Each structure stands twice: as C-alpha cells, then as structure tokens.
Amino acid sequence: MTSYEIDPLELSALVASRVCHDIISPVGAIVNGLEVLEEERDESMRQFAMDLVQKSARQASAKLQFARLAFGASGSVGSEIDMVDAGRCAKGFMEREKAELDWAVAAPFLRKAQAKLLLNLLLIAVNCVARGGTIRITAEREGDEAVMRVTAEGDRARVPAGVREVLTEGAIPNPLDAHAVQPLYAALMAREGGMAITVSEEENRVVLGARPAA
Predict the structure, then answer these.
(1) Measured distance CA(92)–CA(70) in Å, rounded
(2) What order do you get walking across the sheet with 205-212 strand by strand?
(3) pLDDT tens digits, 148-165
(4) Is 88 exposed, middle or buried (0-12, 13-18, 19+ CB in 10 A)?
(5) How far apart are CA 199 and CA 161, in angstroms?
(6) Which ranges constitute the DSSP H helices of 71-111?
(7) DSSP state letter for 173
(8) For residues 77 and 53, is the Cβ–Cβ distance under 8 A?
C-alpha cells in the first residue's frame, strides 16, 4: 500500500478551503440576486434575480450535501452509507457540470471510507473531462469488499498532471494547495478503506478503478 506523510491540521485546513471554494460561487450569486431584489423596481429584472437566487440556492445545497458525504466525518448513522442516497447527492452535484452522470452502482451499501472514495473518484473524473462527456460509475460488493470503476469519456479526456502519481504512487502534490488536496484526500480514503487505486488512459477515455489492496 502507498504511504503519505502530511500534517493532519494542514490536511483539514486544505480540505475546508476546497469545500469553501466550491460553494463561494453559488453563494455569491445568491447575494448578488438579493441585492438586485432589494434595489431593482423593474419587474423583469426582479424575476431574473429571483430565478438566479433559486438556481444558485439549489446549486449551493447540492454542493454542500455532496461535500458532507465526500469529505465529512459522517455521511449516515452507522458504519455504512446508503448508495441510493449517495447517488442522489452525486446527481444533484452533477446537474451544473458539463459531463453527464450514469450512476450504475449495484451495491446497496458501502463502508464509509469506500463510499467516500467513490465520490472522490467522481470529482477526479469530472476534471478528466473538462470539455464535457459522460461519467459512468459502477460499484459491486462481496461481503465487506468492494470493487469500483469510474469511466470518464469525452473530447480530449485525460488525467490532470500529477494526479496519477498521487493516486497510485504515494506522491504528495507539489504545490499542495486547496485544489491539489482533493486527489490526495481520495488516496487517503483508499488507504483507510484498504483499497488500491488504478488509473488507465486511452484516447478520449479515462478509467479510475479501486479494489481491495493486495
């Protein structure tokens, strides 16, 4: 298994920064819309502002619910996460992304570390298809063991620079910042769940896999 060395306080600060970064945009849009509603008297502009507030509020809620499962200490009561709920959160998160999500997870429940790993692999897959495409997620479970596969297909699909080394070789991102910490967090979740991550690339296609470590 890979080995990572990072100060726990630094890791928690960077993950918190990552979550804040994701929700700043929709929250800022809500604030802007409320300011327009307060100052504007034109009915069409007020309706536009109200639509902006509603859409941004839904987006912020979806991102927060996803972050609670993907990064939070607890996603559900007990030691497992309901993958129907996880799929619902993933679909809500993906509504405003360029790629379409095909959630084909057969396992009804996964252990928390496994479920969090799967959601973090989804985030990596989104970055692999920056121009849009399709992301298909599968996960099967036999006893406490799970096998996962995240396939991202789209124009010029590729693994971002340095991510493969973090996921499969125990490398620490350089520089380590709020953006680069997410693949590292995924790798740490894999270690916590006793999983090994695989990465494969071909033309317009990236496959991220996770299975029990040898």
Answers:
(1) 13
(2) 100-103, 134-142, 145-153, 205-212, 195-202
(3) 999 999 999 999 999 999
(4) middle
(5) 13
(6) 83-94
(7) P
(8) no
